[in-house]
Amino acid sequence: MMNFSTNARCGSHTSKENISPPSKIDALQVQRAKQRTVLGVLSENDQRGRSFSQGSQFSKHSSISDSSQLTFLGRPSSSNFDVYVEEACEVVLAESGQEVVSDSYYLDAETAALQNPDLRFLLELSSSPCQDASMQSEPDKSLMSEEVLCVSEYAEDIHLHLRESELRSRPRPGYLDRHPEITNGMRVILVDWLVEVVQEYKLGSETLHLAVNYLDRFLSCTAYVKRGKLQLVGTAALMIAAKYEEIFPPELNEFVYTTDSTYTKRQLVQMEHVFLKTLAFKMAAPTTNQFLRLFMSIHSVGANTENLALYIAELSLLEIDPFLQYTPSIVAAGAYCLATYTVNKSFWPDSLHVFTGYTMAEIVPCMTDLHKLYLNAENHPLQAIREKYKTSKYCRVSLITAPAVLPFL
């Protein structure tokens, strides 16, 4: 049996968290020879700036035994995809036919830049070893940051585009009927594990939301996926989402390692190939996280409210029923309203009503379902999301008590 182991702001948030360059594979292989109970302490993560604590332990459900409820995740048989994957090879720039520019070109360009006082100041500022402390602490800006989304000229167009796109990239709510060997509980365990992997590799929240969207859409377009292949599907979904969203996604070897080498690199690459063909390479899917970021850029909220809304939205990823019947924009609106009511006893501001066209009557059904999920989060058998939002990075919002009732019920 295998081991199924493995931004929000309190001050600020960023979804591009793993921003250091990749390291050498040799260091990875040496470290992997050591004993581990979870994802392991990968030596290259220290160099990447996305390392994790030497003594970090995932929750007890990460380890699967025959007596556990998680026994559906057994070691899979050899890959049965009729796909031939050639080994990837590096292409030298000079062999691609692209013109190679001489060093003198860059020297001339630098000389010209230094003659421009504004550019010279910029170069001096960026290269100075004694930058201002406020500059050093400035967080990296996410592509989904409020500064990018809240551009008055384009905010409405962005919103309309996302609303149109979300209808084309929705999974089928009842897709598990097409997979007799997979249950809702198995999917919940898989998503909980994906949360832990995202945390350990310090990937962004958007990467998690995308991975779950890819997972659900893939299972909506296929049938009779074996239970032994479910973790392979989930790992491929996360790998593709990381490649799409992150600046420096984890390497292929690391994704294999997260599954305790249950699957080979070849199997994972084959699954990635099948995954992309099944989804017709349509990977730009609007997520609840995107809509939340947009809503909070239009009508800003405090750190507690923001993180609580992100926490509630992430909880919704665990459950197919009822949340796949709602669009991501409605789930985002419901999470926003529930968070603002919990913290400030307010609901949907007029600015967002005008911006989205959503009324409270349209939001209430989803908000009610989110409230039930929020109330039961403490007693849920899988706690990865709740543990994540207990940290100071997210203002420990998962410790905030949910309102016992909502006033309109």
Structural overview:
- With 409 residues, the chain is mainly α.
- Among the domains are: 25-85 and 170-278, Cyclin-like (Cyclin A, domain 1); 286-399, Cyclin A, domain 1 (Orthogonal Bundle), CATH 1.10.472.10.
- It has helices at 25-32, 43-48, 103-115, 117-127, 133-136, 146-149, 155-168, 184-200, 205-221, 230-245, 252-258, 265-278, 288-298, 303-315, 328-344, 350-356, 360-376, 384-388.
- Helix 8 packs antiparallel against helix 9.
- It is globular, with a radius of gyration of 23 Å.
- Residues 1-8, 11-17, 19-114 and 117-143 have low confidence and may be disordered.
The name of the CATH architecture of the domain at 25-85 and 170-278 is Orthogonal Bundle
Top CATH class of the domain at 25-85 and 170-278: Mainly Alpha
Count of alpha and pi helical runs: 18
Specify the helix fraction band.
40-55%
Rg over CA atoms, rounded to whole Å, is 23 Å
Task: Report the structural category.
Answer: mainly alpha
Domain Cyclin C-terminal: 286-403
Region (Disordered): 1-24
Biased composition (Polar residues): 1-21
Family: Belongs to the cyclin family. Cyclin AB subfamily.
Entry keywords:
mainly alpha, Cyclin A, domain 1, 18 helices, disordered N terminus
Provide the fold topology.
Layout: H1 25-32, H2 43-48, H3 103-115, H4 117-127, H5 133-136, H6 146-149, H7 155-168, H8 184-200, H9 205-221, H10 230-245, H11 252-258, H12 265-278, H13 288-298, H14 303-315, H15 328-344, H16 350-356, H17 360-376, H18 384-388
Helix pairs in contact: 8-9, 8-10, 9-10, 10-12, 13-14, 13-15, 14-15, 15-17
